[in-house]
Automatic annotation (TrEMBL):
Family named by the database record: Belongs to the eukaryotic RPC34/RPC39 RNA polymerase subunit family.
Protein localization: Nucleus
Protein name, per record: DNA-directed RNA polymerase III subunit RPC6
InterPro entries (UniProt xref): RNA_pol_Rpc34, RNA_pol_Rpc34-like, WH-like_DNA-bd_sf, WH_DNA-bd_sf
Purpose: DNA-dependent RNA polymerase catalyzes the transcription of DNA into RNA using the four ribonucleoside triphosphates as substrates. Specific peripheric component of RNA polymerase III which synthesizes small RNAs, such as 5S rRNA and tRNAs.
Domain of life: Eukaryota
SUPFAM superfamilies recorded: Winged helix' DNA-binding domain
Provenance organism: Sphaeroforma arctica JP610
The entry's keywords: DNA-directed RNA polymerase, Nucleus, Transcription
Predominant localisation class: nucleus
One of the record's GO cellular component terms: RNA polymerase III complex
Length: 314
């Protein structure tokens, strides 16, 4: 039986390209070798030629190589193998990005530090990659592809402006939320002066209702979401200005003011009622001091030697 004629290099390359085109997510070398009915040496030689001609590119998935057809509009066209390796690592990092130190470690076997610096500078000049500041580690370099939006865990969300906490914006939005809760409490007190349960229900507000109020007031140029309002309300709870209730109890409403259903387990809020007006004595350490009656000028316990009073006055 006569042997099949040996295929030329061009025929082998056409066969390889045809098979790779069938796999949009890439194909591994073992499967490619079987589908092309080609020996390992011929496969490696022609794959390397196709890589140099930028007709295919090699990716890594789970530590294993994959081959894909190069899209003519792909910005990786014309990149060297080292640049492709760096690009792949940054792309795999997605919206969380990759730290400069981690990138340097992963490419250390193939690319020296100075060469990596040149590659990253070239990527940023061409708009392929960008450097992102993390609110957790603002002094460390973090890279990601230029078209990717950084994850909120890196940017801090709407409460940060270029990795700096926007205290004025947070305080302004907190004041709007607190004032709305107080106004609802006053209205509930007027409408239900003798019915405590109904007064509590009427004074409760949901996060969606607060967000709607912020949008209606046009006090924010930034688009906020319900989870942003939740952050504001948690801070107000810690400050003792509002209290949090879980919907579904006897004193919680089943619908908000706009008629939206409030499901059991949802967080709702109401302003904290101050029953006694604050005065200087109750706010000072003296108002809660357990040895107040022993405190006298010149005595072992005295105002002039009290560290708590000194700290409060400062």
């Amino acid at each position: 039986m006569a042997e099949a004629p040996r295929r030329t290099e061009n025929e082998l390359q056409k066969s390889i390209l045809t098979e790779i085109k069938e796999f949009a997510d890439g194909i591994g070398p073992e499967e490619l070798m079987q589908r092309c009915e080609i020996v390992k040496e011929d496969l490696l030689r022609n794959v390397n030629l196709l890589l140099k001609m930028q007709k295919i590119k090699m990716l890594k998935q789970g530590g294993k190589p994959l081959f894909k057809i190069v899209d003519p509009g792909d910005r990786t066209v014309g990149m060297s193998q080292k640049e492709l390796l760096v690009h792949q690592l940054i792309e795999d990092a997605g919206s969380l990005g990759i730290w400069q130190r981690e990138l340097r470690i992963q490419v250390s076997k193939d690319i020296v530090s100075t060469e990596l610096t040149k590659i990253m500078k070239n990527f940023m000049n061409r708009g392929i990659a960008k450097e992102v500041k993390s609110v957790m580690e603002p002094k460390k370099k973090l890279y990601m592809l230029s078209y990717i939006t950084p994850d909120r865990s890196l940017t801090g969300g709407v409460w940060y402006n270029e990795a700096d906490f926007d205290k004025e914006f947070v305080n302004a939005m907190s004041l709007v939320c607190a004032d709305y809760c107080i106004a609802r409490g006053r209205e509930a007190k007027l409408n239900h002066p003798h019915d405590f349960l109904e007064r509590v229900k009427a004074s409760c507000v949901s996060e969606a209702e607060l967000l709607e109020h912020i949008v209606k007031c046009k006090v924010s140029q930034v688009t906020l979401q319900v989870k942003d309002v939740e952050c504001l309300m948690q801070a107000l709870v810690f400050d003792g200005k509002v209290q949090i209730l879980m919907a579904g109890g006897a004193v919680t409403p089943v619908k908000d003011r706009q008629g939206r259903a409030i499901s059991a387990g949802m967080k709702i809020y109401r302003a904290v009622e101050t029953h006694l007006p604050a005065n200087g004595l109750t706010q000072s350490p003296c108002g809660v001091c357990p040895v107040f009656k022993f405190c006298n000028v010149g005595a072992p316990i005295s105002p002039e030697s009290c560290t708590y009073l000194r700290d409060w006055l400062d």
